[in-house]
Q: What sequence folds into this?
């Protein structure tokens, strides 16, 4: 069973995710490899499972005793006028029921406890494993898929552990028990009744196969309905602007009706199936009553046996139906299990060297020495890069989209491994130091600011978990974030992220600056945002940047002219190579690639001006007056 | 609960549309219950009449009768299940359509406050709750009550004392199941909440993986997840405890009934007061009754959930749209494009965001709106297509018609809108361009795309104009999306145009193309533009400078620059900014605009977050 190619929806909740839907999976019901791994996780709980098994047997026996006790009460008690025996049977019945109650409770609780605890362990282990994986994993594995593994697929296993592990045996045991009990009462009548079994199995099997297809169709249709709904809620302003309400409603009605029709197909199928099962069950009862009744008359059977037989036949079909359901659970578990195991078996592609040393406090002298790098085999995105950045310097990277700037800075914090060459910090090869000790001394500010849900304070403190409130405030003050935070109703305790207040792009950036500042890294990596920010915030951010970069070795993927011109070194990256390097003045004087990039931006303004003048029907009006 | 009840009643009323189906469904239900109740009675006959009197023929006949009844029951059972499902699905279908229509048509004031996620959850899970209730819930409830009453009558008619004694544990069963239902409701809600938190933690961790790695916070994240996961475990175990302690106990209560029957009934049999057959039949009735009663807990849950869901659904369905068409609204025929604001004062809530705004836009004029954030620019452009109604004072007219006197569709057909946030639908490029003019021939679509400078990139896509975009389709860049939006507006060929000229996240070349496309678009139309760029301001026939909801200055760029005031201040603010950056530039290259110079833009594929 191959992995689904599409990712699950990247919604917050993984429940109801189509990728984890048991019916969407056609696969083996039993895969020894997957089962072996799953049972491995069950091992620590083998005592509890064994206990549950014993309890299950007692439960099944006590459950099956009922009809036999009733038979004895009728045949031996009532028929023979034995009041004492009748009394004993009532007590026996109550005892059996009481035992059934206690064992049933114990079995459910034990297995549910094992199941839940196991799922808890499983999730935690999966999460911890995810933390070890590197960015190259996250580049290809979408968030939606991760959620559907950890939430959805693990949830499927819970079903399996809680109900199926003992349940399958319990069903088989009960089924065998009923067969034995019936046979012991009367062999010919039992055999006669068993003739309906194959019929039952066949009908169930046919139904299961067809039902799966119809239900898959239902899910597909409801997905289409919901997708359309979602899109038109999101785009409702466009819908109304273009007066498309009528057309859209007609289209939605079509999707909605297709869903209705698919549902009715499914309904027809199940409406046929359940009455059919009912008829087959009645056939068994009719056989017992007809032939059994005649047998009673002929003296081969007592009335009590007949009653007991009818009662057993009534219970006959419960374990069969359960087993059918367990088959589906098993199938889903195998598919989910396989996906989870695949994820667990994904090894992080950057491993810490066994003899990695703790990186001592650094000054921040970074050297990139003949570095070649590519994300996948064969295609390199960086070729033979050399850089020497003395401590405290700021390097600005410029170049076209896709030139390799982001890849270069990602290598510095060892998010990816270089293919050839080496990166050293204060002379230490970054592959030979502990990753944690490296990253602790490096700060990264990304273009799209990510904040966790929690308060603003929590988010700033993410930079240094032990920071005091005063230190948090000071960091915010230094980058100029304090001003806007103070205007919020709850100040630093204002919740952000999901369910919290929405901060503007500029405000989010300032928070992330404060976060980086609090970490007080010797080396700072910064990917400047390109989105438009209003003039006022822009000024604050520029000032914040200056403070943030001061006294640190900084690598900036620069978009702001002010950042570029103030840098100690400007590095122009093109096609994975360093095309030019130097100061702003030097590079302009060279009239090379930097000059072209720079003047292209300038020319754009010229064009704009020309266009404006054209529109005004005037010429030569300088905008600076 | 009171409100929920009344909502549940309203939901029942939605079924009134399908009286015939409801009638047949319930007819099937009664027949099925009746036939079910017959079986124990037949077995009683076998035992009492057949066995004791040695009537062979009766025995065989009853065997056949049981089978025959099963067949008849099968037919009605089919009808019952099918129609029940039909009713449930049909009501869900109706509700979904009604919701969709409402959401599509209700005015912007509603959507400003509503969240997509919330609306979606109402349209999906709330509709589903209602559907489940109308399907199984209602039927099960009816089933229980009919069964209870019918079996009580049958049992009472056989032996009053035995019936009453045997059924004494049943009220306990009812209490237990209802208490379980209530309990379960609280517990499963707590589980769901925690599952939400767990998912959020996981999602944030994956989305923010670069931050986690950059700060080397893996251990912290592990601890965070572990705490949520442990809480989830606790809450699940609470549910399990509730289950485990309820269902086995309920079985025991039923067994208690049987034991009473066996003891007291057995004695009665011996005394000859009742027959063995009656005893067996009693036992069957108890089992028959006990099963649905056990489900009562779930049903009570279902009922209150459906009530709550119904409440949430009707909250939307009952919400009046703030913008209503007059019953005698005129159809606005093709207009010249004369737009007037006459002393308009407007507020979304309490605080006015526009105060006494008056201006006239003559046909083919370009009106630039400028001012600080929150000064009222967006409000002005939202009032023209009547996304909101002017309630406070004043009026907006198009070619002399008060826009509240014309139909919404005919008004909006005259207006094209291109905003900064470009929303495209997951459909083909052609369908997106033709969004406002569905029947437009391909040639017109192409012409619009060409004018919008979008044709070239469209032709470079795998399927040209038939390329699907959006979900499961090609992803377009911001600049490409913007040009499609321009083509979409062009094809509509509106007399009045509303646009936002801010272009972010596009490279220099694209910016130039979009600029050209916008100039084409603006030709020969009355244009309102939220201006961010100098070029637009300079080309405008009239600039309205807004501050705190009032027009503080108006005129052309030159006039306003000479006048001083806010316009001059905003202009100077940018200018001073440029001079700051100009210090780093050789004098020859010093340029007046903009302050941020994009030597490289956009996100790099692999690492850019």
A:
């Amino acid at each position: 069973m191959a992995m689904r190619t599409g990712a699950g929806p990247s919604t917050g909740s993984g429940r109801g995710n189509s990728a984890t839907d048991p019916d969407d999976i056609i696969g083996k019901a039993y895969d020894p490899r997957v089962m072996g791994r799953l049972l491995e996780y069950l091992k620590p709980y083998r005592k509890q499972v064994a206990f549950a098994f014993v309890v299950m047997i007692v439960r099944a026996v006590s459950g099956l005793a009922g009809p036999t006790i009733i038979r004895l009460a009728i045949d031996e008690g009532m028929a023979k006028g034995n009041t004492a025996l009748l009394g004993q049977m009532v007590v026996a019945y109550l005892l059996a029921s009481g035992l059934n109650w206690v064992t049933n409770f114990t079995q459910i609780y034990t297995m549910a406890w094992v199941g839940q605890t196991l799922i808890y362990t499983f999730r935690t282990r999966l999460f911890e494993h995810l933390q070890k994986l590197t960015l190259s994993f996250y580049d290809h594995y979408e968030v939606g898929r991760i959620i559907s593994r950890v939430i959805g697929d693990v949830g499927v296993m819970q079903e399996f552990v809680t109900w199926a592990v003992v349940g399958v045996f319990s069903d088989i045991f009960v089924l065998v028990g009923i067969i034995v009990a019936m046979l012991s009462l009367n062999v010919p009548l039992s055999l006669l009744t068993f003739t309906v079994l194959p019929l039952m199995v066949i009908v169930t099997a046919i139904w299961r196969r067809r039902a799966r297809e119809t239900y898959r169709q239902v899910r597909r249709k409801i997905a289409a309905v919901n997708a359309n709904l979602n899109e038109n809620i999101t785009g409702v302003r466009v819908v109304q602007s273009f007066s498309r309400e009528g057309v859209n409603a007609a289209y939605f009605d079509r999707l909605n009706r297709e869903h209705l029709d698919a549902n009715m197909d499914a309904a027809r199928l199940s409406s046929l199936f359940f009455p059919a099962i009912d008829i087959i069950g009645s056939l068994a009862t009719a056989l017992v009553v007809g032939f059994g009744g005649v047998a009673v008359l002929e003296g081969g059977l007592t009335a009590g046996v007949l009653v007991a037989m009818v009662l057993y036949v009534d219970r006959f079909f419960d374990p069969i139906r359960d087993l059918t359901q367990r088959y589906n659970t098993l199938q889903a578990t195998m598919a989910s299990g396989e996906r989870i195991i695949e994820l667990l078996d994904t090894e992080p592609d950057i491993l810490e060297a066994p003899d990695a040393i703790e990186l001592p406090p650094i000054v921040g002298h970074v050297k990139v020495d003949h570095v070649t790098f590519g994300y996948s085999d064969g295609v390199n995105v960086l070729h033979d890069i050399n850089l020497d950045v003395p401590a405290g310097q700021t390097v600005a990277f410029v170049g076209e989209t896709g030139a390799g700037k982001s890849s270069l800075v990602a290598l510095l914090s060892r998010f990816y491994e270089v293919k050839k060459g080496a990166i050293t910090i204060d002379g230490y090869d970054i592959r030979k130091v502990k990753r944690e000790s490296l990253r602790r001394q490096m700060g990264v500010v990304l273009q799209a600011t990510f904040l966790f849900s929690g308060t603003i304070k929590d988010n700033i403190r993410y930079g240094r978990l032990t920071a005091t409130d005063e230190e948090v405030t000071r960091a915010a003050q230094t980058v100029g974030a304090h001003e806007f935070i103070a205007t919020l109703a709850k100040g630093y305790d204002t919740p952000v992220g999901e369910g919290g207040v929405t901060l503007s792009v500029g405000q989010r950036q300032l928070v992330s600056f404060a976060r980086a500042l609090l970490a007080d890294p010797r080396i700072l990596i910064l990917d400047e945002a390109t989105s438009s920010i209003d003039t006022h915030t822009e000024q604050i951010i520029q000032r914040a940047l200056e403070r943030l970069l001061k006294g640190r070795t900084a690598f900036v993927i620069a978009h702001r002219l002010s950042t570029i011109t103030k840098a100690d070194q400007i590095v122009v990256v093109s096609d994975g190579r360093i095309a030019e390097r130097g100061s702003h003045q030097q590079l302009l004087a060279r009239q090379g690639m930097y000059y072209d990039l720079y003047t292209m931006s300038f020319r754009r303004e010229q064009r704009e001006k020309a266009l404006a003048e054209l529109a005004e029907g005037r010429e030569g009006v300088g905008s600076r007056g | 609960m009171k409100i929920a009840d009344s909502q549940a009643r309203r939901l029942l009323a939605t079924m009134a549309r399908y009286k015939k189906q409801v009638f047949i469904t319930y007819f099937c239900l009664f027949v099925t219950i009746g036939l079910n109740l017959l079986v124990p009675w037949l077995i009683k006959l076998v035992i009492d009449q057949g066995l004791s009197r040695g009537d062979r023929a009766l025995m065989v006949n009853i065997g056949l009768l049981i089978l025959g009844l099963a067949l008849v029951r099968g037919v009605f059972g089919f009808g019952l299940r099918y129609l029940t499902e039909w009713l449930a699905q049909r009501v869900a279908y109706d509700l979904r359509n009604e919701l969709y229509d409402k959401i599509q048509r209700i005015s912007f004031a509603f959507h400003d406050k509503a969240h997509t996620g919330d609306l979606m959850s109402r349209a999906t899970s709330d509709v589903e709750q209602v559907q489940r209730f109308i399907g199984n819930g209602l039927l099960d409830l009816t089933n229980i009550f009919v069964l209870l009453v019918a079996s009580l009558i049958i049992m009472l008619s056989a032996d009053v004392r035995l019936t009453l004694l045997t059924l004494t544990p049943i009220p306990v069963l009812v209490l237990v199941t209802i208490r379980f239902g209530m309990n379960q409701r609280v517990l499963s809600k707590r589980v769901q909440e925690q599952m939400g938190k767990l998912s959020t933690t996981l999602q944030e961790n994956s989305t923010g993986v670069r931050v986690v790695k950059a700060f080397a916070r893996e251990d912290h994240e592990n601890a965070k997840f572990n705490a949520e996961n442990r809480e989830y475990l606790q809450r699940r175990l609470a549910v399990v405890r509730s289950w485990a302690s309820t269902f086995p106990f309920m079985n025991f209560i039923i067994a208690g009934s049987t034991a009473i029957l066996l003891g007291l009934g057995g004695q009665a049999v011996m005394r000859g007061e009742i027959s063995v057959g009656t005893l067996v039949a009693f036992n069957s009735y108890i089992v028959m009754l006990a099963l649905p009663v056990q489900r009562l807990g779930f049903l009570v849950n279902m009922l209150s959930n459906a009530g709550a869901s119904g409440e949430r659904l009707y909250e939307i369905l009952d919400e009046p749209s703030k913008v209503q068409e007059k019953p005698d609204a005129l159809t606005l025929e093709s207009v010249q494009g004369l737009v007037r604001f006459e002393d308009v004062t407007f507020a979304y809530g309490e605080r006015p965001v526009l105060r006494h705004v008056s201006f006239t836009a003559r046909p083919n004029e370009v009106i630039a709106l400028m001012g600080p954030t929150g000064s009222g620019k967006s409000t002005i452009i939202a009032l023209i297509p009547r996304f909101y109604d002017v309630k406070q004072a004043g009026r907006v007219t198009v070619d002399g018609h008060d826009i509240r006197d014309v139909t919404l569709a005919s008004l909006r057909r005259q207006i094209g809108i291109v905003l900064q946030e470009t929303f495209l639908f997951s459909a083909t490029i052609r369908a997106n361009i033709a969004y406002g003019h569905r029947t437009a021939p391909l040639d017109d679509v192409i012409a619009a795309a060409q004018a919008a400078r979008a044709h070239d990139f469209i032709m470079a896509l795998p399927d040209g104009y038939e390329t699907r975009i959006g979900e499961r389709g090609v992803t377009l860049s911001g600049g490409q999306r913007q040009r499609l939006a321009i083509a979409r507006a062009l094809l509509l060929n509106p007399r009045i145009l509303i646009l936002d000229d801010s272009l972010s996240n596009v490279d220099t070349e694209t910016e130039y193309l979009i600029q050209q496309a916008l100039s084409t678009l603006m030709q020969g139309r009355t244009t309102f533009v939220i201006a961010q760029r100098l070029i637009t301001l300079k080309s405008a026939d009239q600039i309205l400078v807004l501050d705190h909801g009032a027009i503080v200055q108006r005129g052309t760029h030159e006039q306003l620059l000479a006048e001083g005031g806010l316009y001059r201040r905003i202009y100077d603010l940018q200018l001073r900014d440029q001079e700051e950056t100009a210090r780093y530039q050789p004098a020859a290259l010093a340029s007046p605009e903009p302050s941020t110079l994009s030597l490289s833009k956009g996100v790099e594929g692999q690492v850019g977050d």
Observations:
- The beta strands of chain B are 339-347, 352-361, 366-370, 393-398, 401-402, 415-418, 496-500, 526-530, 542-547, 550-555.
- The first strand of chain B starts at residue 339 and ends at 347.
- Residues 375 and 547 of chain B are 5 Å apart (CA to CA).
